[in-house]
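Q: What would this chain look like folded?
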Amino acid sequence: KTFLNSSFVPYFLFFLLFVLYHSLMVFAGDDTLFATILKKQGLLDWTITRYYQWSSRIFIEMAVIIFSALPFFVWKMLNILIYLSIPFSLHYLINHQNKLEHVYLLVFLITLYPFYQMGSAGWIATMTNYAFPFASLLIVFCFLKLVYFNKLNKFNYFLLPFVLFSLCIATAQEQSTVCLILTLFYLIVLR
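A: My prediction, written as structure tokens:
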């Protein structure tokens, strides 16, 4: 098997594209507001106030505050990894034949999304509120696939804390929660 015929190539190209995207990002929008919260109020106080006044996205907004306070490149590196997990997870969930052209198609379809829209309210705020829960939901779905098809092994049990963390992030976003509930309903009741 040559390098060019490897399923690694489309993922590597996807990685390079997202490195390029991230090199063009600037720190702006709501990210600048979230960056000041730790200096003004403190994470716990702000989270409690936010919970009672506005948002159910507690875990997500805590992450936004933390990432906004860190150097921007730290979030960029993590975000590239999060985004890279999306095609890997989707490939695991839907590509049963493991064909290389399916991987290229999957990566191509993901790159069709107008990525610049994710910076509308600030890159950290928008990506953490939408891409992180989506990627986390896909990780939970991958684990559910293992459970459903009885393919768990000892290694998968070591991933359980990571899957539970992903579950917390995924269900902190309303749309992801609905998708998870509908999927579980289908798997438990309708199958």
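The mean pLDDT is 90.
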